[in-house]
Amino acid sequence: MDYMIELQNVTKRYGPIVANDQINLGILRGELMTLLGPSGCGKTTALRCITGHLTPDEGRVFIDGEDVTSVPTHKRELGMVFQNFALFPHMTVYENVEFPLMIRNLPKAERREMVMDALRLIRMEEYEKHYPRQLSGGQQQRVGLARALVYRPKVLLLDEPLSNLDAKLREEMRFEIKDLQRRLGITAVYVTHDQAEALALSDRVAVMNGGRLEQVGTPDEIYDQPGSQFVADFIGLSDFIEGTVLAVEGEKAMVTVDDLQFAVPASPRMRPHDKLLFFIRPNDIDLFPLGYAGGENTFDGVVSKMTYLGDKIDYRIAVGGLELRVQTDGKVRFEEGESVRLQLPVDRCRAIVRD
Ligand code: ATP
């Protein structure tokens, strides 16, 4: 594989804590890979092994085919953006972006050209004489990006770069970063604990849990085919249902859950009497008034809670001994205490490996 960055068996310990546990991860040229996971799962540690701020206890780090495990940060040709924009307050936008080129002793004319190129990239040419305090949070972060990219690094590393911005700006900046990364074709590693951000931005996502890589895949794969309960739970809402396989009939398995019987897509490994965990996303469950004809996986239930969320309605519905969460677009509304009929489309149910 033509990896721009590769971690081979990277382990990093802090005393008894294993912050990175045998991480194997290849990042393709031109790809935006996100390291995603809850606080403390080891994302920043992995990123710092790539930047060279940390040396792994075991394993090797390669950038552009070169073993850089012992190469200092400043010789790795990286562009870095962190959450606390870290612009120099006493320098103008131009001087901030020029700074990495000054350190590299590039001639003035060349510096000017590169700085203006970088400012054009973020559409801030007119702001060259402004100071950071005269800029909005989003503009400051764009200058941070320009400064990271100005010397045309091999890779761009971003550690929670949007977490200091408000929700709306964060969403805008996601697209801006993605667009910039695509236009430049630069390989990027992006650290976040925000799953929506990861799904929106990434070519691939590496989900981490307790220092280990839990799953690596495209946003679609991670969302639709989570490899574990942890991933299914971390990426979006899910109803988890535990049952026992009654029978496997071709492509379907019948699963009993107390007095209810569900059909779920079968996998070759399933056998009768197996304990099984499957999940469905709350927005994949269809909700109807009582009396709807129904079909497979159709059950009657009672609305135990209804929460209005603006563009959707969130229901808790008691079905047998289960309480399922269901989200609808709200075109038809049901009240608390009302009896409803719900359907779980078989192809939206996923059996998953137990953690
Ligand atoms: P966050 O999203 O909160 O930044 P993270 O996923 O980036 O978390 P890391 O910062 O990589 O996680 O930390 C992984 C583990 O290593 C955590 O348990 C953390 O407490 C521990 N850790 C990180 N840095 C140090 C350190 N310098 N000394 C001791 N323990 C550390």
Description:
The radius of gyration is 25 Å and the shape is elongated. α2 crosses α3 (108-121) and α2 packs parallel to α4. The chain is of the alpha+beta class and 355 residues long. The protein contains eight helices and 20 strands. It starts with a strand and ends with a strand. The longest helix is centred in the middle third of the chain and has 18 residues, at 167-184. 24% of the residues lie in helices and 37% in strands. The protein has helices at 43-51, 93-103, 108-121, 137-149, 167-184, 195-201, 219-224, 229-234, and strands at 3-14, 17-28, 32-36, 58-63, 66-67, 78-82, 155-159, 187-192, 204-209, 212-217, 239-249, 252-257, 260-265, 275-280, 286-289, 298-308, 313-319, 322-328, 339-343, 350-352. It has two domains: 3-229, P-loop containing nucleotide triphosphate hydrolases (Rossmann fold); 239-351, Nucleic acid-binding proteins (OB fold (Dihydrolipoamide Acetyltransferase, E2P)). The site of adenosine-5'-triphosphate has 12 residues, from β2 and α1.
- Taken in chain order, the helices and strands follow as EEEHEEEHHHEHEHEEHHEEEEEEEEEE
Structural class call reads alpha+beta
What is the CATH architecture annotation of the largest domain?
A: 3-Layer(aba) Sandwich
Q: What portion of the residues fall into strands of 2 or more residues?
A: 35-45%
Main sheet makeup: 6 strands, mixed
* Overall radius of gyration: 25 Å
Number of helices: 8
CATH class of the largest domain: Alpha Beta
The strand line-up of the biggest sheet is: 6-7-8-3-9-10
Ligand species: adenosine-5'-triphosphate
CATH topology of the largest domain: Rossmann fold
Question: Which term fits the overall shape?
Answer: elongated
User: What is the terminal-to-terminal distance?
Assistant: 30 Å
Task: Give the integer mean of the pLDDT values.
Answer: 92
The count of domains is: 2
Corresponding CATH superfamily of the largest domain = P-loop containing nucleotide triphosphate hydrolases
